[in-house]
Amino acid sequence: MIISLIAAVAANNVIGVKGDLPWHLPVDLKFFSETTKGHFVIMGRKNFDSIPEKYRPLPGRPNIVVTRNKDFNATNVTVCASIEAGIEHAKNHHESEVFIIGGGDIYRQTIGIADKIYITHIDAHPEGDTYFPEFNKDEWTSELILEKGVDDVHNHAFTTFVYTRKS
Predict the structure, then answer these.
(1) Up-side HSE of residue 18: CA atoms within 13 Å toward CB?
(2) Mean pLDDT for each consecutive 10-residue tract of the chain (167 residues)?
(3) Whole domain around residue 132: which residue ranges?
């Protein structure tokens, strides 16, 4: 099973501020949805809570929420006490590629075991309180898969790459 991280990351590594995204990029949201649809997604509890209620759980894909809070409960979600348990759950359900979707702590804990990283690099330096971890790009091959400039809907230019760990 492939373990993939997927994130939108500003030039200063910011991925969030006060439980929200510091940008609105519809093309990137569509890319995220299309890429993860039909696959298990694993996220931390704070990340799950940050998703607008009308989109929780994320439709069209099994949602796994990792939390140490034994009292946490959410409808139509698998709750796991550890990332390893979430990955094992996806593997036991014959998943081909599981997606780690955040937040910052979850990314930090999984970047070392990831096979792929899908990153939308956003040409912006927003204020934030949640960051994507640094990683050594020399250990990965990269492929540009999407480019978008500023327009009347997207206030930041961005490029999306898929990084694959070198053997």
Answers:
(1) 4
(2) 98 95 95 98 96 94 96 95 98 98 96 98 97 96 97 96 96
(3) 2-165
